[in-house]
Amino acid sequence: MNPAPGGTLTSGHIARFWSPLAATWVMMALEGPLIAATIARLPEAKINLASHGVVFAIAILVEAPVIMLMTAATALVRDRDSYRKLRLFAHGLNALSTLLVVLLLVPAVFEPLILGLLDLPRDVADIIYGALWIYLPWPAAIGYRRFIHGVMISGGQTRQVAVGTVFRLVSMAGTAFTLPAFTDLHGAWVGAASLTVGVCVEAVAARIMATGAIRQVLATSPEESGAAPMSYGGILAFYYPLALTSLVALSTHPMLTFFVGRARDPLESLAVLPVVHSLSFLFRAAGLSYQEAAIALTGNDFEHRRPVGHFAMRMGLATTAAYALIVLTPLFGVWFETVSGLTPELSGYARIPALVLIPVPGLGFWLAHQSAIMVLMRRTKAITMATTLGLLGILVIFPVLAWGLGWVGATAAVVAFLGGRIVSNLYLHRIESR
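User: That's the sequence. What structure does it adopt?
Assistant: Structure tokens below.
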């Protein structure tokens, strides 16, 4: 795409292109608190919140094969041939992810996993099983929506992506408020239905809004696009490292939760980590959204690599400073005690972890730009290696701090997370500099 008239790329052009994507991620960050607040106000809140936590974790892991379709479509779709081939590839991944849910619904698979491995009570397992049925359309809707979003981003329609997220939030919230008023469904089922309706509505809205972009792609021949021909083998070689990356990345949170439960002050640590994470995520979300923007704007010949990189650096510093403004000032108490409702004791446990995470928003922008460069270079295996090394960094750092030095679990977890992120950044910097 030509991001600006005359091929000139300024910070203003980048901001206008990227800001709708950032808004999309921030809006998605609001889903979790809204669903949790809804379930907490329904009968048997404790059981249903626990059930929702488990089944949502399963849903996130099941969508791992399709989560990178947006990145793939942004990078690869240039003409009708690449669009049709990647669309068929996406349909195959969507079918595979749906089959994974179906497999989990088989009692011979579900019961050993939930009742055996996780050792959950029967009443919780029954609620999870029902919720899993509701999530059946979830992975395919996510995969199709992310593929379409990639086509839209490649065509410069980032504002329409944000509009689709508004449809998602409105339909999700409407379902969350309507079902309890007219049914006596379990809270976890209400949560599953709300999230599933939201992603399905967004997928339909995205397809409607992408009509122009798809028409333009279908009208472009491979000769006109100048892109190299793609085979399904080439798509697979490009994509599987990205899918593996998402799977490795998604395993970080449950792994740290498991570790923290076996470290010093586990209850206090488990109580404050979600609150610290939610604040950090609000500032990290902008960086997470930058990867697709960087892929679309840098150019196939890397002609805009420098301005895109400079913008990432400035935004990384800005989001880091904004986060620091909260955790280094009296706003810390306002957020953690007044807004989040932590007691002064728990707020004390949150202070050091919150301070440790100050560099993370900036590192996130750096990682997004590095990953975009690797995608454009077709070196997606480097992204997988960086993510794996980051995970290994966590596996090394946490035991030393928590079990060797006796640190509080929450503090050890965030230091390990920061260490893992730095390892990932440094590895990609080394690869990029070659």
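Residues 251-434 form one domain.
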